[in-house]
C-alpha cells in the first residue's frame, strides 16, 4: 500500500477495479492522504476505444473529487466544434448538449435541442484514463488480480480479498469498483440474490469511431462535428466528436425481443451489414452513418439494475461504487459521471479523522450508502424510460414529439442540477449523526 499510516492497521483501503470509478476514487483518496491500493483484473489500466460524454454535474464532481481528475479531463475534453454551439460564459450563452433529429421518415428534421452550462463535453475513454493514471503513485496498482470474493472478519479484523489465481490479501476496507458484473456486489448482497446481477434490457448497441475527415466529407460538416441524436421507432443513433475533433463517435441502439446469447459477456462480434439490416428502412442520414463503420464491429449488450436495485451499497467495511452499485443503461450518458460523484462523496467522507478507525470507516460507508442510493437508482430508472422515449416506446407518450422533448428535458435537468457540494455536505451530516451509535 502507498502512504501507510498507523491509523490503518491493515494497510488501508483496497479498491477492486481500475476503471473510471476505481481510478477517480484512488485519486480522491491519494489527494487526502488516505492509503489505498487498486486490484485490477487486466494486465494494465485500460479502457475501450469509445467516447464518453460528461455533463455539468459530472464536471463539478471531478473538481470536488480531486483537481487532477479535472486536469486530466481538460487535457482530452472535446466540445462541439461549431463556435455557435459552444457554451460561452462571458456571453451568457449555454452550449448545445445534443440536437435531436428525425432519423426515420422525415430525414434530419430537427425535433428539439438540449442546452446546458457546459455544452457537449466528450472524451475518448482510453485517453481520459491514461491522463488520470499519470497522477497516481506508480506502486498503487496490482494487475492480473481478479477478485472472486471478499470476506469480512468480525470486530477490528481486516477484510480479505480472494483472487482467481488462488492468492489472497487483506485490507482495512474494500470498495468494489468492478463494474456491471461486480464480484464485490455478489459478496456484499449474496451471489444467489437477483439484486447481485444486472439484467439485460433487450437493447444492444453498435459502437464505432470514424476519422473526422471522412465523416465531414461524407456527412457534411454540421452533422459530423456536433453532437446529434437521430430518433425513430425501436432504434436510435447518436454521434459526437471526440479526440479534440479528430474522430466522430457513433453509437447505434436497437431494441430486440431476443435474449442475449451469453449473459456473462457484454459484447459479441457483428458486421456492418448486421447494423444496416437492423436499421433497414431508416432515412438516408442514419444509413449513411452506419455505412461508414468498419466491416467488423462489436455489439454491446445494455444491462442495468432497474428491476432489482441493490438494497444497500455498503455493509460493514465493504462498499460498492460506480456500475458495481448502480449499473445503468447509457441513455442519460451519465453512468461514468455518477461514478465520479460517488468517488467525490466517498473520498470526502473517508477524509474525516473519525473515519480512519474501523468503527468510523463503517459509518462512513453507511453515510455514503444513505446519500448516494436514491439519486443513482433514480438515474437507472430514468435512463430506461429515456431510452423508451427516444424510440417512441414510452407509455403515454409514443410518437408525440412535444411530450418527448418536454420529458427528456425535465429528466436531464434533474441530472445536471445535481449539486456535489450539497451531496457531500448531506453525507457529512449523516456521518456525524450516525457516528455516536458506532461507538456503543
Ligand atoms: C454504450 C455505452 C455508452 C455509454 N456512454 C456513457 C456516457 O456518454 N457518459 C457516461 O457518463 N457514461 C456512459 N456509459 C456508462 C459508463 O460507461 C459506465 O457507467 C462507467 O464506465 C462505469 O465505470 P466503472 O469504473 O464503474 O466500471 P467499468 O468501467 O466497468 O470498470 C470496472 C473495472 O473493474 C475491473 N474488474 C471487473 N471485475 C473485476 C474483478 N472481479 N477483479 C478485479 N477487477 C475487476 C475491470 O477490468 C474494469 O477495469 C456508457 C455505457 C455504455 C455501455
UniProtKB/TrEMBL annotation:
SUPFAM superfamilies: FAD-linked reductases, C-terminal domain, FAD/NAD(P)-binding domain. One of its GO terms (molecular function) is oxidoreductase activity. Signal peptide: none annotated. Residues 14-380 form the FAD-binding domain. The keyword Transport does not apply. One of its GO terms (biological process) is secondary metabolite biosynthetic process. InterPro entries: FAD-bd, FAD/NAD-bd_sf, FAD_monoxygenase. Keywords: FAD, Flavoprotein, Membrane, Oxidoreductase, Transmembrane, Transmembrane helix. The chain crosses the membrane at residues 12-31. Pfam families: FAD_binding_3. This is Salicylate hydroxylase. It comes from Mollisia scopiformis (Conifer needle endophyte fungus). The lineage of its organism: Eukaryota, Fungi, Dikarya, Ascomycota, Pezizomycotina.
Amino acid at each position: 500500500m502507498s502512504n501507510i499510516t498507523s491509523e490503518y492497521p491493515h494497510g488501508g483501503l483496497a479498491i477492486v477495479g481500475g476503471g473510471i470509478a476505481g481510478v477517480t476514487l484512488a485519486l480522491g483518496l491519494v489527494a487526502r492522504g488516505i492509503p489505498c491500493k487498486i486490484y485490477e483484473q487486466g494486465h494494465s489500466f485500460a479502457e475501450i476505444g469509445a467516447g464518453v460524454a460528461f455533463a455539468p454535474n459530472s464536471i463539478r464532481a471531478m473538481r470536488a473529487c480531486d483537481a487532477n481528475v479535472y486536469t486530466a479531463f481538460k487535457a482530452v475534453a472535446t466540445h462541439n466544434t461549431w463556435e455557435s454551439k459552444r457554451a460561452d460564459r462571458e456571453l451568457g450563452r449555454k452550449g448545445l448538449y445534443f440536437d435531436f433529429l428525425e432519423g426515420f421518415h422525415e430525414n434530419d428534421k430537427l425535433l428539439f435541442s438540449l442546452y446546458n452550462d457546459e455544452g457537449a463535453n466528450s472524451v475518448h475513454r482510453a485517453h481520459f484514463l491514461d491522463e488520470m493514471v499519470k497522477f497516481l503513485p506508480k506502486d498503487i496498482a496490482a494487475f492480473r488480480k481478479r477478485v472472486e470474493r471478499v470476506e469480512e472478519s468480525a470486530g477490528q479484523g481486516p477484510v480479505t480479498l480472494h483472487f482467481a489465481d488462488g492468492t489472497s490479501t487483506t485490507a482495512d476496507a474494500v470498495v468494489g469498483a468492478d463494474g456491471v458484473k461486480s464480484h464485490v456486489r455478489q459478496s456484499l448482497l449474496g451471489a444467489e440474490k437477483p439484486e447481485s446481477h444486472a439484467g439485460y434490457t433487450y437493447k444492444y448497441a453498435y459502437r464505432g469511431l470514424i476519422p473526422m475527415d471522412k465523416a465531414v466529407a461524407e456527412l457534411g460538416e454540421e452533422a459530423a462535428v456536433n453532437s446529434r441524436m437521430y430518433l425513430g421507432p425501436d432504434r436510435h443513433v447518436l454521434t459526437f466528436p471526440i479526440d479534440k475533433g479528430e474522430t466522430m463517435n457513433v453509437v447505434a441502439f436497437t431494441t430486440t425481443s431476443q435474449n442475449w446469447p451469453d449473459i456473462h459477456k457484454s459484447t459479441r462480434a457483428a458486421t456492418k451489414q448486421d447494423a444496416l439490416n437492423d436499421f433497414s428502412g431508416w432515412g438516408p442520414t442514419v444509413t449513411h452513418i452506419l455505412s461508414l463503420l468498419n466491416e467488423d464491429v462489436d455489439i454491446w449488450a445494455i444491462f442495468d439494475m432497474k428491476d432489482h436495485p441493490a438494497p444497500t451499497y455498503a455493509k460493514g467495511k465493504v462498499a460498492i461504487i460506480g456500475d458495481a452499485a448502480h449499473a445503468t443503461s447509457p441513455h442519460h450518458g451519465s453512468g461514468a459521471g455518477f461514478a465520479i460523484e460517488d468517488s467525490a462523496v466517498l473520498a470526502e467522507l473517508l477524509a474525516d479523522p473519525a473515519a480512519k478507525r474501523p468503527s468510523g470507516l463503517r459509518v462512513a460507508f453507511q453515510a455514503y450508502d444513505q446519500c448516494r442510493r436514491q439519486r443513482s437508482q433514480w438515474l437507472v430508472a430514468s435512463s430506461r424510460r429515456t431510452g423508451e422515449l427516444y424510440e417512441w416506446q414510452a407509455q403515454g407518450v409514443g410518437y408525440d414529439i412535444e411530450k418527448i422533448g418536454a420529458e427528456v428535458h425535465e429528466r436531464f435537468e434533474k441530472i445536471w442540477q445535481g449539486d456535489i457540494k450539497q451531496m457531500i455536505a448531506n453525507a457529512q451530516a449523516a456521518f456525524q449523526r450516525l457516528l455516536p451509535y458506532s461507538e456503543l
